[in-house]
Queue: 3 jobs
Job 1
Amino acid sequence: MIGYKYRANAIEGKDSTRDIESLLNDEIWASSFRNLNDPFEATYTDEISKVLPIFNQVFNVNISDIQKNWKELMAFKDKLGIYSLSTSDKDFPDNELMWAHYANSHKGFCIAYDVEKLEDSEKFSLDVNRMTINYSEKPPQIEITDIKSPNFIIKLFGTKSPVWQYEKEIRLLYTNYGMKKYNPFALKAIYFGLNMDKQYQAQIIEKLENRDVKFYKMERKDKSYNLVPTLICENQRKIENKLSSDQYEILKIEHNHTVENFHVLYKGIKKDKESLIIFSSKFREQYATKPSNINIYDNKACIDLIGKYPLYGKEKTLFANHLIALSMFETPDDIWLYPDKYYRLNNRILGNSL
């Protein structure tokens, strides 16, 4: 998913290009709730406090622990960090009001992020949660049954008034507010506003020269009130001895929080260990954005078996015959030839010895 962040860049009367500096340093600022521009953030109707005395009187339930946990949760809110992004129904940031309100009347720029990679930038997956904002005429009612609900956090921290609906907001909710470093591969594109100073545009393009980033200039579409982007530049990483596209085909990619799994069809002639180690090393340099496992196949016949478990009979044999190598993230400079065959052979030997 792509999320857009509209940035003001340089503000008149202030000698600051903080937004450019953060961009070039691969940093985002997760704000605290009290510093957001909506004074009604995390507003709710408290139904819990109303029913607790009734529980105490009718059922003689000790409510002190519930009250304590509720107070602790509300105190925890002050530690949370929020990073807001906007979505678009198109494949570019076309929101005129967002450009006007958050990008300094088009003197700024807009960043396109891979949201999944922003999330994966945190060391632990529980340190960040993504939510899509729900717009409602009334604040949510928080009841005692909500506390154990998996949607409780979204209901409490992801509800806003319909006046904000034009933002089409998604947000990343961090366990602590403050500056966050992100995976450089999360940055996909930069869109320059209609009125952005050309010297700032040139600065950004130059500083991001060894990155896979596209740069667009927003333009007015003739005979309409619409904005359209024009591609003005595309930077790419400098990779020596880049793999030729006729040497491989990516069959499947699985993105996990800490590890990526690539399933690749190898079209090369040499299938010895040294050749496959060189191939996996070059492939990682081109595609991996984090520690990765590379599963190498020599035939597409097993593509429908990838991820299927368990495998039996002919399917198991087919998969074992065509999974010719595995390069694991723990030992990226080594490779395991025919790993499934090796695993089956060891199991057979072990079974015969028992």
Job 2
Amino acid sequence: MTSHTSHSVTAVTVTGSPVLPYLYRPAEIAEALGVSEWWVKEQARQKRIPFTRPGGTYRFTAEHFQEIIRLFEERPTKGVREPEVGRQRSRRTEPRTSAESKRARLVPRVPRRMRLAQIAAAA
């Protein structure tokens, strides 16, 4: 088996055998995506991204990496409208339900200095 000292190697050759794919570690995938290693492992654990698990550790092929890129790709939607400036939505468009109208409204307390002033004025 040939050693792969550089990460640019995408396959490992074995004498008399077909070419084996290079398996990337979660840290390598995380660095390429600009996310944390934890995030890559969590996505794999929840089966949101493709992976292989030889020996109980998460590993990724170049095809897995390409699929991960495709999964999280965002494309613009057709007919995107510009937001209307200056238009505000009303606070409540539908009438209150009976359950909402029966709820007690909170009433603020009178500040202590005002209560003391009222007591002093009454005395």
Job 3
Amino acid sequence: MKRTESSDQMKSYAIITDIHGNASALAAVLEDIKQRKADHIFCLGDMVGIGPDSNEVMSMLLDTQNISY
């Protein structure tokens, strides 16, 4: 997670990538990001394929607030 300074408050960003259809790993990462109170998440790709839960992964990401793809 990276922190940048803007005006008087710090912003924090989380970067996720290479999920490959692994819903349980994504759930753990999203929970960690929530605990760290990131202001925004950037998802760099490789969200589906290989793992068994591609549909669930997409649903989880689409339901997540403050995320860019």
